Every structure is written in C-alpha cells, then in structure tokens.
Amino acid sequence: xxxxxxxxxxxxxxxxxxxxxxxxxxxxxxxxxxxxxxxxxxxxxxxxxxxxxxxxxxxxxxxxxxxxxxxxxxxxxxxxxxxxxxxxxxxxxxxxxxxxxxxxxxxxxxxxxxxxxxxxxxxxxxxxxxxxxxxxxxxxxxxxxxxxxxxxxxxxxxxxxxxxxxxxxxxxxxxxxxxxxxxxxxxxxxxxxxxxxxxxxxxxxxxxxxxxxxxxxxxxxxxxxxxxxxxxxxxxxxxxxxxxxxxxxxxxxxxxxxxxxxxxxxxxxxxxxxxxxxxxxxxxxxxxxxxxxxxxxxxxxxxxxxxxxxxxxxxxxxxxxxxxxxxxxxxxxxxxxxxxxxxxxxxxxxxxxxxxxxxxxxxxxxxxxxxxxxxxxxxxxxxxxxxxxxxxxxxxxxxxxxxxxxxxxxxxxxxxxxxxxxxxxxxxxxxxxxxxxxxxxxxxxxxxxxxxxxxxxxxxxxxxxxxxxxxxxxxxxxxxxxxxxxxxxxxxxxxxxxxxxxxxxxxxxxxxxxxx
Length: 516
Ligand code: HEM
Hints:
By secondary structure, the protein is mainly alpha-helical. The protein is built from 24 helices and seven strands. The protein has helices spanning 2-20, 30-46, 52-68, 77-101, 112-116, 120-127, 132-143, 159-166, 174-177, 192-206, 208-212, 215-235, 242-259, 274-291, 293-301, 304-310, 315-333, 347-350, 356-387, 391-402, 413-416, 420-432, 467-471, 492-500; strands spanning 146-150, 153-156, 171-172, 442-443, 449-452, 455-457, 462-465. The strands form two sheets. It has a five-stranded mixed beta sheet with strand order 1-2-7-4-3, with helices on both faces. A two-stranded antiparallel ribbon has the order 5-6. α3 (52-68) crosses α4. It starts with a helix and ends in a 16-residue tail after the last helix. Protoporphyrin IX containing FE binds at residues 186-187, 195, 199, 254, 365-366, 369-370, 373-374, 377, 435-436, 440, 467, 504-506, 510, 512-514.
C-alpha cells in the first residue's frame, strides 16, 4: 500500500509539473504531460526504488484512460492524485483477480488472501506473531504438499520438491536477497553465473584443509568462551545467557576468519556484545525490508550518520562497518600488509579483484550466515544433551576415552570426528535446528518445472521449500521431533540414505559454503 501511494504520489506530482508547462506558449498538452510523467517512473523502478509491477499497472491504467478520454487536457492538476489513485487501485485489483482465478497458478491450492495479494505473508509474519515454520506447517496440513502463498509465489513441503527446486541453477529472488544489503557477496549474488566465479575464488578457505588451518583460532575462542562462562556463572554466582555466549563465540571466530580481526565479543559483560545486540535488532528490520523493499532501499541509501539517528539499536553494526571499511581501505592502499596476517582471510582471494563494497559485503554475509545458524544449533545441542535421558552419560564416556584429562589440550578435529556418538549427536542437532527458517526463494527458470509429480510450475514463479519441514517429515524420520542420536548409529549404507534426507545446509549449487 505504501508502495502504491508512492507510485501515485510520484506520478501525480510529475504530471502536475509537466502539465503546468501547458500554460506557456508552445507548452505541453495533457497527453504529453501524462506520458512524460509515466516515463521517469520506469527509470525509478529500474533503479529499484519502486516495484516494476506497479509501474506496469500504471501504464495499463494510462491506456484505459486514453481510451476513455479524447484529450487528457481536461484533467485538472487538483484531481490528478485521486484519479491516478483510482486507476492504480483498479489495475491492482484486476491483476490480482487475474492471478488468483485465471493465471497459470490458479490450480495450486492456498488461502484466498494469498492468491489475491502478496501481503499475505507479511501480514501473518508481522502482525499475527507467527513464524515461517508454524505458518507453513499449518497451511500444508490444510492444502497439501504444494501451496500458493502469494499471487506469484508457491511453497513446497516435500523432500522431492526440495531437491527439485534447489538442485537447479535458478536465480535467487531479488526482493528477499537484496534486503540484506549484500548484493555483491557470494550469498547475495542473484545469479548462478555471477556467484560461481566468486565462490570458486573463496572455495579454498572452506575446504577441509582450509578449515584445518583455522583450528587453532576455533580452539582459542572455545577455550576463552569456556573460561568466560565459568567466570560469569561461578565467580559471580549468577546465571548467564548461553545462547548469547554461543553467538559471541561464533561471531568472534567468523570475524577472525574473515578479517583476521578479533572483535572481543566474548569478553563483553553478560555476553551482551554490541555487534550481537545489533544483529538481533536487525532481524526484525530484515523482515520489514524483505516485504517493503522501498523502505530497505531508502535506509541503505542514507548517510551513515543519519542511519545512526534513525536506528540507534543497530549502532553495533554500523561500528563494525566503519571498522572493517577502514581496514579494507588500508589493505587496498597497501596490499602487502596481507602477508603479515597469520592465516588466510577472505581478503586473500578477493582483495585484488574485489571492490571495497564487495569485500565488506562478503564479510557481512559470512557474519550473518554463520552466527545465528551455528549458535542456535550449538545451544540446541547442549539443551538436548542435558535434557534427554542417557545422552550426556554416553557422550561423556566416549569423550573420556580420547580425552581422559580435562585439563590437557582438547583432542584434534581429526580425532574428534572419528567418534561415532559425538558425530551422531551433532547430526541429530543439525536435523532439529531450524537452520535458516525463512523461505530460500528462487525464481523458476526457462521452461518451468514439475515441482512434484503432476504439479507444473511455470517460468517466473517464485518458489521455495522448507529444510526444517523436510528434517521433521514423519514419512522420512521416525519420531521426528525427538532427539535420538542413536538413529544415526546404523550401517554405512543406511546412514548415507539418512544423510540424503538431511537438508539443513540446503542443496545444489547455492548450498552452504560453511558446511565443514
Ligand atoms: C549450522 C550452521 C549453518 C547452517 C544451518 C547454514 C545453512 C545455510 C543454508 C540453508 C544456506 C542456503 C541459503 C540460501 O539458499 O540462500 C546457506 C548458505 C550459505 N552459508 Fe551457511 N549455514 C551454516 C553455517 C555457515 C557458516 C559458519 C558460514 C561461513 C562462515 C556459512 C556461509 C554461507 C554462505 C557464504 C552461503 C551462501 C552460499 C550461496 O548462496 O551460494 N554458513 N547456509
């Protein structure tokens, strides 16, 4: 609606301006003024400030108007806003009705509100205090495995559909992915082709040997977090927030990994590091941005000092942005300084060809991609280990065999990954974690797809599946909501088959880079 009013406002104002020229000798008539006022809208939409769909509707409205009136010079500037509003609303209603009842998705079941309007999802997420998983589970139970959740948007619940969608090289959907302000990162690049080149350059950092090169960083940060937890809980005799502690651990490892910069999040009192609080606060903003792209565009176009005033809760993020941009500028001016960094960072493969913006955005993508996901999973794992009868004892017995003396150094990654029960506990936590619960939207490419047998989805449709729903699907997992690490202690073949059903890190060409 805000978008609609903006289109109308911009269009009406431009029309008035152009039409006033008509009183001058050789000035413009109404028709020319109308046409001239529509044209800039096209460019404003192309720059991403207005939704192209609305501008198209505006053009359609113009045609109807031309047809109905012999000359637009009859229209006064005073009523232009109102007339323009009627036209846009009429065009919106008509296009919604077409999409719901006549368009190519008309046979896909779903709530009427969703078939008619793309505000169905934002309404439920922002005003009905629900979340993606709860909402989609309820809708799939009511309408079946493939459902309509917007005039041009479909959600699918099954593993087959998930594999079909994500194993393609479909583009990421711009409204969602642009809302993070990471357009030039491997996560935010919309097309497979653009992402591939960047991902290839970064891939060395994410291989087994790349991650092994960072083992000392991870160990040092884990040790520090354990010391700080002890200090918070035992020395000060109070409780502390374990999830925040895990977030601080994850963010410290990632900033060191990406930028060779220890930002000291772990040392913050109560683990309330400004960067973590800012990331928490920004999650709601992303929900707004992803549904109201115009707000997103405006906020990201503001100078930093103004953003600071408008959104002080995000100051931790702005601080980090300033710090890292300074670091990038220094490295750009003097690339030889990279040689003194003790391990590989994202700057090593990207500095030579990457812009300042793309370097920062890559780091931010890693920060957001690896902090909540890792910390939620770690917290869930600890919760289930402590609360599921028998698990803690079994895990400790196995760990004691390779690490009899707690005060000695933690066994190596090589040694730990050979422990079957520990591996099973991690797999089970990865199965139960919500991971990335938001729909990972893709745009169906040329030729369309059969998302499940007999259900055809045409090119251009926005489509997504839910990894969390697949990981909890009772046709794939026995007692799916129970934490049962023992389910993974089976023969190699059976375990492989189970791994093929686990989609926490997504699938296909855009699956997680941080999987190791
Ligand atoms: C338990 C931990 C993690 C989970 C559950 C997870 C999950 C995911 C998922 C589902 C995607 C697909 C997103 C999409 O399609 O848009 C993804 C992508 C990605 N993840 Fe992770 N992730 C985890 C940890 C990490 C870590 C630690 C890093 C890096 C430090 C990382 C970096 C990335 C990147 C760069 C992408 C984008 C890949 C692309 O678009 O081609 N992730 N992750």
